[in-house]
Write a structure and sequence with these properties.
Elements (H helix, E strand, L loop, with lengths): L1 E4 L1 H6 L6 H13 L3 E4 L1 H12 L11 H14 L1 E2 L6 H11 L6 H13 L4 E3 L14 E3 L3
Parallel strand pairs: 1-2, 1-4, 2-3, 4-5
Helix pairs in contact: 3-4, 5-6
Length: 142
């Protein structure tokens, strides 16, 4: 099975309080023989959170440090670049499911998953996907 890692899971790998739990969940999925993926949107969102100040709910890291962490992420997990069809899939999803506001970001993740034939997403925020969660398998890292 192809499993996409959501941004909150990637961020969890760099948070002292969640690192062990998230790493254990990833290891468990890999031991079951599943492949772990990231997409550009996850990398963009990680960059935003990692460089945002701690008082702004970020990690407070300098950009050059985050650049190194991104390289590590790309060496650890399979990266699937955006390709044709994601916009068309996304616009169809947001219209069909009447998606509005921030949930449109999550609809784009589901669109990318469908285009790249990913069956599951590991996320701590399954609620964010709303009615779109019926289209994918949700794996909660705990």
């Amino acid at each position: 099975m192809k499993v996409l890692l959501d941004t909150n899971v990637i961020v969890g790998l760099f948070e002292k309080a969640r690192r062990s739990q998230v790493a254990h969940a990833i290891r468990g999925v890999r031991e079951q023989g599943h492949n772990m993926y990231v997409i550009p949107q996850v990398i963009y969102e990680f960059w935003v959170v990692a460089t945002r100040p701690i008082h702004g709910n970020g990690l407070g890291l300098p950009a050059e440090t985050v650049a190194g962490k991104v390289e590590g992420i790309l060496q650890t997990f399979d990266f699937v670049d955006d390709g044709g069809g994601i916009y068309q899939k996304w616009i169809g999803l947001v219209k069909s499911y009447n998606v509005s506001g921030k949930k449109a970001h999550d609809a784009r993740i589901v669109a990318a998953m469908q285009v790249h034939q990913m069956e599951a997403i590991m996320t701590s925020n399954s609620r964010d996907f709303g009615p779109l969660s019926a289209l994918v398998t949700i794996i909660n890292p705990g």
